[in-house]
Amino acid sequence: ALLDLDSGAILPFPRLVSLKNKAIEVIAGEVPAARMGPLLGATAKGDIRHLVPRADAVARMGEGGMPALLLFPRFGSGPAERPVGQGEVFMRLTQASTNYVALGEPAFAALTRFVAQVPARAIDFPSGEAAIALVDRLWSEIG
After folding, report:
1. 0.85 cut: is pTM over it?
2. Which of 16, 21, 120, 141 has the highest local Cβ count within 10 Å?
3. Could you count the other beta carbons within 10 Å of the beta carbon of residue 111?
4. Is residue 23 part of a domain?
5. What residues does 51 pair with on adjacent strands?
6. DSSP letters along 8-57, please?
7. pLDDT, greater one: 63 or 78
8. Which residues pair with 27 in a beta bridge?
9. 72-125 pLDDT tens trace
10. CA 47 to chain centre
11. CA distance 141 to 131
12. What does the pLDDT look like over 8-59, one tens digit per residue?
């Protein structure tokens, strides 16, 4: 996603999703075959296959919205959730940003506003079903 520096809106940025090993089979069972790229077997990271974004997602990538909740997901344990403080959110987002340093002060100001206005949670989940249930619960709580 992209953060609009002036409005604070989040704009979608649909792109290929890199899937590895067991995730390939799980996702391939949930989406049309046309959305799955070729399998790259036995790489240094194991098997890799890319999930292609939906065409409608690409067509609508100019449509943004104001953020209401930021989630930091982690697969493999839980389900659990915890609040994430503003300092940790700021650090995580700057580390994940590809252009924060290049944008300089406008990026700092926009990210500072974002962190102050948007609640954040770290979520742990053991399965896709548990993740959906956890996200649904958190969404209903802010609703």
Report:
1. no
2. 120
3. 20
4. no
5. 17, 36
6. --EE-----EEEETHHHHHHHTTS-GGGB---EEEETTEEEEEEPPPHHH
7. 63
8. none
9. 999 888 889 999 999 999 999 999 999 999 999 999 999 999 999 999 999 999
10. 22
11. 15
12. 999 999 999 999 999 999 999 999 999 999 999 999 999 999 999 999 999 9
Domain span holding position 134: 67-143
The radius of gyration of the chain from alpha carbons, rounded to an integer in Å, stands at 17
Indicate the number of domains in the chain: 1
Query: What tokens appear for 9 in the block?
Result: 């809106």
Give the whole-angstrom CA distance, residue 87 versus residue 65: 24
CB half-sphere exposure, 21, CA atoms < 13 A: 4
pLDDT at 96: 93
Please indicate, yes or no, if residue 104 is contained in any of the structural domains.
yes
Distance, CA of 137 to CA of 130 (rounded, Å): 11
Spatial contact of 19 and 12, defined as CB atoms under 8 Å apart: no
Q: Is the pLDDT of residue 143 over 80?
A: no
Closest CA to 20 of 2, 53, 43: 43
